[in-house]
Amino acid sequence: MELVEVQNIQKIFRENSQAVQALTDISLTIRPGEFTALCGPSGSGKTTLLNLIGCLDRPTQGKILLDGDEISRASQQDLTKIRLRKIGFIFQDFNLIPSYTALENIEYVLWLQGVRAAARQKSALEICSRFGIEKLIGRRPSKLSRGQQQRVAVARAIIHKPKIVLGDELTANLDHKTGADLMDFLKKLNQEEGMTFVYATHDPVMMERANRIVRMQDGKIINAS
Fold first, then answer.
1. pLDDT at res. 99
2. What's the confidence (pLDDT) of residue 225?
3. Three-state secondary structure along 132-190?
4. Torsion angles phi and psi, residue 148, rounded to 5
5. Can you give the C-alpha Rg of the chain in angstroms?
6. Distance CA 208, CA 4 (A)
């Protein structure tokens, strides 16, 4: 069974009363355990496609299934539930909550799920130990380096064991070594635990780590090797 099925998707935005076609007739499948890069220049539609798969937006036309659920016409309430249960997000600017400690940021998704404090803290501490960031748990984001913030963001994205993890330009704000280290770490999670990753990038380091590359241009898929 495919984890993600995107069927003949179109996405049109309205800007100043003008229709802007962001995606045109996109079809794509993602299987469990893939480590897939969406590649293409700025404006090619990578982020728009990620947002649709991640239940952050709806297509104008077409159909999307995630783990057997049709998400393209789901209610906002259902989309919120699907995001909490099945999707992990790693954002380019990390989106950490400034007033929360690293540990509290990592726990956040479990808090939204209604997990009790003791259980969610136990899970967060375990993942911090695994990521090698246990000494950072009491620090707030402003006291963390960019690489440390990114590790906290990754830990938060996977703590609830999502079906799929989505990332947008993960290494854009990192130096070369930190970005390469991050991608090696994500690849290890993919290989050892079968975790599914789909990420948008134009970074050669990230493309090298992918086991599948989907190339996009002008809102279309031009190659999906």
1. 96
2. 76
3. CCHHHCCCCHHHCCHHHHHHHHHHHHHCCCCCEEEEECCCCCCCHHHHHHHHHHHHHHH
4. -65, -40
5. 17
6. 23
